[in-house]
Design goal:
By secondary structure, the protein is mainly beta. The chain has a single domain, classed as Beta Barrel (Lipocalin), CATH 2.40.128. Helices cover 13% and strands 45% of the residues. It is built from one helix and eight strands. It has one helix at residues 2-19; strands at 27-30, 36-43, 46-54, 84-92, 95-103, 108-118, 121-127, 134-141. The chain has an eight-stranded antiparallel β-barrel with strand order 1-2-3-4-5-6-7-8. A hairpin with a 4-residue loop joins strand 5 (95-103) and strand 6. The longest helix has 18 residues, at 2-19. The chain is globular, with a radius of gyration of 18 Å.
Length: 143
């Protein structure tokens, strides 16, 4: 019986510790499509994420894929590899929120929040404007 109580206590403690760890989000994450790794890092008290690896980083001609769909034409010639796609997230009540996610496939930026699913999975939810309409993807930690 004591072993069972200790096990339950340790499980609860490890889940609580994970849920309160604001830096648990740091590291590389494989996006839902498996096409890219996003490196999440802190900067000036906020969290950001950049594309650190791409399954197909180059066009058929061997040149790097560029952010050609960016509505800001001065940014449309920047390579997608290394592009910051997560910006300005703050940790609050076990969620990283107040940030945005940029989709280089469409050139659109969405409001976003990130929540932990487990130590090795996060849910990334992009919203259309300020509405509740959006899409959630699960990203997996890259080890």
């Amino acid at each position: 019986m004591n072993k069972r109580l200790i096990f339950i206590f340790l499980m609860f403690f490890s889940i609580s510790a994970f849920s309160q760890n604001k830096d648990q989000i740091l590291g590389k994450w494989l996006n839902a499509s498996g096409e890219a790794h996003i490196q999440i890092y802190p900067s000036a008290g906020k969290y950001y994420g950049k594309i650190a690896w791409m399954k197909v980083p180059n066009n058929p001609d061997g040149k790097p894929k560029l952010d050609k769909n960016n509505p800001n034409t001065s940014l449309s010639q920047i390579p997608i590899l290394g592009l910051v796609i997560l910006k300005d997230f703050v940790f609050s009540d076990n969620i990283w929120e107040g940030g945005s996610i940029y989709d280089p496939k469409t050139g659109k930026t969405y409001s976003c929040k990130i929540s932990p699913q487990s130590p090795d999975k996060i849910n990334v939810r992009g919203f259309v404007g300020f509405s509740m309409l959006g899409r959630t993807e699960s990203w997996t930690r890259v080890k």
